[in-house]
Amino acid sequence: MERTLLTLPEVAKILGISKERSYAISRDGLLPTIRIGRQIRVDQEQLDDWINNGGQALPGGWRRSGHE
Predict the structure, then answer these.
(1) pLDDT score of 55
(2) How far apart are CA 33 and CA 53, in angstroms?
(3) What percent helix, strand, coil does the chain show, rounded to 5?
(4) Which pLDDT score is estimated for 61?
(5) Which runs of consecutive H residues, i.e. helices, occur in 1-68?
(6) Residue 26 confidence (pLDDT)
(7) What count of other Cβ atoms lies within 10 Å of the Cβ of residue 33?
(8) 11: helix, coil or strand?
(9) Measuring CA to CA, which residue among 3, 4, 8 is closest to residue 38?
(10) Which of 1, 13, 15, 31 has its CA at 20 to 30 Å from residue 22's CA atom?
(11) What is the pLDDT of residue 58?
């Protein structure tokens, strides 16, 4: 079974958000990520499931301190 692992800039393009936002939501544990050493990847299938299930909101709302 071949899996497609996406970089966070690729995920940002798919979600229509900035690269910075993709790193922020990854850091906050909102995206299903995989760490390969210092690199962060997102499994395409898990991302699709995450999107189909409505994603996950930032705790405290999107204007939470540090994410403006």
Answers:
(1) 80
(2) 16
(3) 40, 15, 45
(4) 54
(5) 8-15, 19-27, 44-52
(6) 92
(7) 19
(8) helix
(9) 8
(10) 1
(11) 57
Question: Using a CB cutoff of 8 Å and minimum separation of 24, what contacts does 12-15 make?
Answer: 14/47, 15/51
d(CA 33, CA 23): 10
H/E stretch holding 34 reads: strand 33-36
What does the chain come to in residues?
68
**Placement of tokens 């936002």 in the chain:** 21
The Cα–Cα gap between 5 and 41 comes to 6
Pairing of strands 5-6, 33-36: unpaired
pTM of the model: 0.76
